Amino acid sequence: MPSFRYEMRCEGPGVVRVAGIDEVGRGPLAGPVVAAVAVIDRSVAKRKLLRLIDDSKKLAREEREEAYEAMIASGAVRYAIGEASVEEIDSINILQATFLAMRRALRSLGDQPDVVLIDGDRAPPELGCRAETIVGGDARSYSIAAASILAKVTRDRYMLALAASFPGYGWETNVGYNTAEHLAALNRLGPTPHHRRSFAPVTRLLGAGPVLAEIQGVA
């Protein structure tokens, strides 16, 4: 379960605001990569709210939606969202696009944090503040877990809206990930403008262009 121990370790002289950053959408064949940054005010956050916050991958869709709405309504969580488009992913690769989405989220936050806690083992360059990486951070830090939920729900809702305009790919359920249903639709219907042409399955279908990313094993 998450806790505030990592946030508290960072606090001290000159460090007042600690944020968590996480992303979602590195692995899908379609749609943007989305990042969120979250700052939780521990003096305001109630236990009822904290019980809802966990690694987004561990929560069912309904649980993520409940946590998302509760965080926004609570007034205890200050957050911002950033994303990188399919075109940017294809142009600069998925890792750099992920870093770009994280920087955009942080810059949209307003009052900048003194330290950011980042899920994983790599910090984006040029964040503008100190960064601490935590492997498995979305299951260990409340701030990162909150960011993971905010990013996941935002991206899922976006893909659900796209599904109405691009039926047949199963985005209502697979939200752009590499499932058998999605691959079958790609072969049957071809790629949409929202497919990542640099990702191997789409590249092979198009029969041209460099393969910049294999999606197997990418979260």
Task: Describe the model.
The chain is an alpha/beta fold and 219 residues long. The protein has a single domain (5-166), classed as Nucleotidyltransferase, domain 5, CATH 3.30.420.10. It is built from 9 helices and 5 strands, in the order H-E-E-H-H-E-H-H-E-E-H-H-H-H. The chain has a 5-stranded mixed sheet with strand order 3-2-1-4-5. Helix 4 crosses helix 5 (94-107). The two termini are 20 Å apart.
What fraction of the residues are assigned to beta strands by DSSP? 15-25%
Strand arrangement in the largest pleated sheet: 3-2-1-4-5
Shape: globular
| Average pLDDT score | 92
Note the total helix count: 9
Distance between the termini: 20 Å
Q: What CATH first level would be assigned?
A: Alpha Beta
Tags for this model:
219 residues; alpha/beta; Nucleotidyltransferase, domain 5; 5-stranded mixed beta sheet; 9 helices; 41% helix; globular; disordered C terminus
Structure, briefly:
It contains nine helices and five strands, in the order H-E-E-H-H-E-H-H-E-E-H-H-H-H. It is of the alpha/beta class.
Produce the secondary structure layout.
Layout: H1 5-10, E1 18-24, E2 33-40, H2 47-50, H3 61-74, E3 77-84, H4 86-92, H5 94-107, E4 115-119, E5 130-134, H6 142-165, H7 171-174, H8 180-189, H9 200-206
Parallel strand pairs: 1-4, 4-5
Antiparallel strand pairs: 1-2, 2-3
Helix pairs in contact: 3-6, 4-5
